[in-house]
Amino acid sequence: MSQSIENDSVGIVVPQVAHFDEPLALTSGNTLANYDLVYETYGKLNSDASNAILICHALSGHQHVAGKHHADDKQVGWWDNMIGPGKPIDTNRFFVVGLNNLGGCHGSTGPSSINPETGLPYGSRFPVVTVKDWVDSQARLSDRLGITQWAAVVGGSLGGMQALMWSMSFPERIRHAVVIASAPKLSAQNIAFNDVARQAILTDPDFHNGDYYQHGVVPTRGLRLARMLGHITYLSDDGMGEKFGRLLRNEKFKYSFDVEFEIESYLRYQGDKFAGYFDANTYLLMTKALDYFDPARRFGEGNLSRALARAKASFFVAAFDSDWRFAPDRSREIVKALVDNRLPVTYADIESAHGHDAFLMKDPQYFAVMRRYMDRIYREVA
């Protein structure tokens, strides 16, 4: 039976591919001779291309931000509650672009892509990529689309880091940076979580040093564990307790290592689901990009205020009080650096029980402040 299309949905969307033959020099010192970027667009670009919004995805995201790929699609885009006709990022007003970053596993060139030099998947030969590399490649896509300046670059978590990097790498090409549930760099604790997740993958017997494609296997166990660990950190203790508590699947203890608590069942389901569609090498690359992100080191000799002196955009920074992975204090570091430079910034500290994942949830307070800020952007470009 066909699924209905909601009135506030962007409807059926078709991913597009942009191929680039111009070599891309990467931060690591490597070069990608050519590459593809997969992207989707929603809404209509206006005559002077001033209403374009770039949506940057987080760790496990991709280009499919809103709508469906076909009428029977049960899975909508990952930020469908935020983007669409009449939604806070209103596609009746804005031309919205979502893309899959380099290194991804949803169509853009990444470890599972065929290396033209060998005729085999890149695997272990795919270079490490950074947030700066992604932004550089996004700028080339902007050129391809005829967008000289984004009305806003928007992202949560790792996506917020890309929005920040845009403001420093291409200050003339971004009017607003919308940075949600993000941080100016990872804490030692966050790097530690990422490394434990990577070790789960790297030590999986099916990993084969990243070249598992040729062996016809997938390091499912490692990727599953990595996702389970990550998922715990994306939730708050209160939120997890409220949803699962100490609920048992059956009424009695079994005194075994089988799944007994509902939270165990939930995490294993999430791990299995993720391992079924995501690529282990991409997970490694995305977490390393998080670890390496440190614009103060790159642009400010260790000083974030000095780094952001390059920026010319206006900023919207939002944090969630239950997000212990990227706590509000980390967002306030960004705000302080912006204020130090007398850059326009709006900050929202939002109450939520959803932890780090709150930026993906439909929360009335959160959506109200987003809508108000996007209304302001629209008034500037209309």
Please list the strands of the largest sheet in the order they lie side by side.
1-4-8-5-11-12-13-14
Number of helices: 11
Radius of gyration: 21 Å
Helix content: 25-40%
The topology string of helices and strands comes to EEEEEEEEEEHEHEHHHHHHHEHEH
E-strand count: 14
Amino- and carboxy-terminal Cα gap: 41 Å
Structural class: alpha/beta
Average pLDDT for all residues: 96
Family: Belongs to the AB hydrolase superfamily. MetX family.
Keywords: Acyltransferase, Amino-acid biosynthesis, Cytoplasm, Methionine biosynthesis, Transferase
Pfam families: Abhydrolase_1
Domain AB hydrolase-1: 52-342
Brief description of this entry?
This protein has about 375 residues and is of the alpha/beta class.
